[in-house]
TrEMBL record:
One of its GO terms (molecular function) is transaminase activity. Keywords: Aminotransferase, Lyase, Transferase. This is Branched-subunit amino acid aminotransferase/4-amino-4-deoxychorismate lyase. PANTHER family: AMINO-ACID AMINOTRANSFERASE, AMINODEOXYCHORISMATE LYASE. Belongs to the class-IV pyridoxal-phosphate-dependent aminotransferase family. It holds the Pfam family Aminotran_4. SUPFAM superfamilies: D-aminoacid aminotransferase-like PLP-dependent enzymes (SSF56752). It comes from Nocardiopsis composta. It comes from the Bacteria. InterPro entries: Aminotrans_IV, Aminotransferase-like, BCAT-like_C, BCAT-like_N, Class-IV_PLP-Dep_Aminotrnsfr.
Length: 263
């Protein structure tokens, strides 16, 4: 289902977002009218709205629209909130903006998804700190990785440092530490929650440079995003990782145990 500011959207109102791709979004998994890291999602939406549109976002309206979608369609549910201005003109993006809330939904997948195989590819996103709607570059790399027999793409910057995936963050286990690559990336809400949970399962958590040549020395790997939570990595390129590492399973269980914030 698709609603704009709480009502069914018209085809005309989708012309601007579809043609120009100027906007930002967040995706959250809703269970029993609760969202893990809801305040982090709202914080990111507000910051990206200020950056892209130069105006404040009504985060209370975001909560209301997401709650309406969950009440209407049930849960668990994956809800995407896109902030866009349907009246945007390609030649005049500098005019006063009037961003609106486009809410779309899809059924939630399993909360214990299977492992992923990843292919490393050189790629640096435009404005990596903004969760923008322009996904062409990331999807081209994902498509190429899947055509090569992998599940997804893992990005390397120009120095061959690991950054992030097409729609996920990645972490590696190394000598009792949950290691997050610090090349330019979008800090995900699940990544931030797991960093806080790491101590509960006996891990330190820190960011550091991770070169592609460092991968054989890592003990395990996992990816995170709000829709699927914590997912083990089976391989990066030709380097295999254990998919049932006990500490990864404990992290995933700790994340699933988070009650979430009420909408």
């Amino acid at each position: 289902m698709m609603h704009l500011d709480g009502r069914p959207v018209s085809a005309e109102e989708l012309i601007g977002p579809a043609l120009y791709g100027y906007g930002h979004f967040t995706t959250m998994r809703v269970e029993d009218l609760r969202v893990r890291g809801l305040s982090l999602h709202l914080e990111r939406l507000a910051a990206d709205c200020r950056f892209l549109f130069g105006t404040e976002l009504d985060t209370g309206a975001v909560r209301e629209r997401v709650r309406e979608a969950a009440e209407r369609e049930g849960s668990p549910l994956v809800v995407r909130v896109t902030v866009t201005d349907p009246g945007l003109e390609l030649g005049r993006p500098g005019r006063d903006a009037h961003p609106r809330l486009l809410v779309t939904t899809r059924p939630a997948g399993p909360d214990r998804p299977g492992p992923l195989s990843l292919a490393t590819v050189p790629f640096e996103r435009d404005l990596p700190r903004v969760k923008g709607t322009g996904l062409l570059g990331t999807l081209v790399r994902r498509r190429a990785a899947q055509a090569s027999g992998f599940d997804d793409a893992l990005f390397l910057d120009r120095r061959s440092l690991v950054s992030e995936g097409a729609t996920f963050n990645i972490a590696f286990l190394c000598r009792g530490t949950l290691l997050w690559p610090n090349a330019e990336h979008l800090p995900g809400t699940t990544m931030r929650l797991l960093s806080e949970l790491a101590g509960d399962v006996g891990l330190a958590s820190r960011s550091a440079s991770v070169h592609v040549a460092d991968l054989p020395g890592m003990e395990a790997a996992l990816v995170t995003n709000a829709a699927t939570g914590v997912r083990p990595v089976a391989a990066v390129d030709e380097f295999p990782f254990p998919v049932q590492a006990p500490v990864v399973e404990r992290l995933a269980a700790a994340y699933r145990a988070l009650p979430g914030e009420p909408l």
